[in-house]
Recover the amino acids of this structure.
């Protein structure tokens, strides 16, 4: 049996600043206890609003996380782009601290002209620098590099797991991305085994359309897909499951209902 309080479902979006609290209250009514704030294009919540939103989320028992902007490449050929990427991540960590967010999910970077080994070395160095600053500043969210769905993007299971071991960062395990990158295998057992040292799990899960080069786009999450995930979840960890489908709320509620039925 799964402990219901250990597994929290929620959408990848909180809406605008003026709608955020209203949306959190709606999520709570639906039984959802997680929400990932999408700073996809900018960190749009200021400190004073972050404090207010964080207080409401805590009162409602909703665990917040953040998805950092997409404009991040810790392996850029341009050193200025790397520095700007770090600044975006640090801003997310700062605002995430006011929000009480547990994770800042990041897309680490692209291979570009470098080999996979060279790319790993550069990204590891930059994550270590970010972790050092995070601790010095007292920022509380964990940096969580995400497993990625496109084959030309840094972020295989093995690469992210190695980052966790080498830098002390956390991870965002996106099983839709893993399915797309592997060409049709969720790789639940080996993935959960390789990340077994993580005390808690931050998971992304949605339906996905993919091709030879990996991820194309997300789609609605079927009941069958939810069941495949849920029956493979460990029973001894706290788990956040964020849905990024075109029907984030409906799919999150569906996942919760399936869990209750097991």
């Amino acid at each position: 049996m799964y402990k219901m309080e250990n597994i929290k479902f929620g959408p990848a979006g909180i809406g605008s600043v003026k709608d955020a609290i209203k949306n959190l209250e709606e999520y709570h009514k639906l039984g959802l206890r997680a929400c990932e704030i999408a700073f996809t294009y900018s960190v749009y919540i200021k400190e004073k609003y972050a404090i207010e939103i964080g207080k409401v989320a805590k009162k409602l028992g909703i665990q917040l996380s953040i998805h950092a902007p997409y404009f991040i490449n810790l392996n850029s050929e341009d050193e200025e782009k790397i520095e700007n990427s770090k600044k975006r991540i640090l801003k997310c960590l700062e605002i995430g601290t006011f929000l009480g967010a547990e994770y800042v999910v990041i897309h680490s970077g692209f291979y570009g002209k470098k080999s996979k080994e060279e790319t790993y070395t550069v990204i590891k160095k930059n994550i270590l620098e970010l972790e050092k600053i995070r601790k010095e500043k007292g920022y509380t969210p964990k940096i969580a590099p995400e497993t990625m769905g496109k084959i030309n993007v840094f972020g295989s299971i093995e690469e992210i797991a190695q980052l966790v071991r080498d830098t002390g960062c956390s991870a965002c395990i996106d099983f839709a991305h893993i399915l797309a990158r592997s060409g049709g295998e969720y790789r639940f057992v080996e993935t959960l085994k390789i990340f077994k040292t993580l005390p808690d799990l931050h998971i992304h899960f949605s339906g996905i359309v993919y091709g030879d080069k990996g991820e194309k786009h997300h789609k609605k999450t079927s009941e069958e897909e939810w069941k495949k995930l849920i029956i493979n979840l460990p029973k001894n960890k706290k788990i956040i499951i964020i849905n990024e489908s075109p029907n984030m709320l409906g799919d999150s509620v569906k996942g919760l209902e399936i869990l209750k039925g097991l």
Observations:
- DSSP finds nine helices and ten strands in the chain.
- Residues 116-137 form the longest helix (22 residues).
- The radius of gyration is 17 Å.
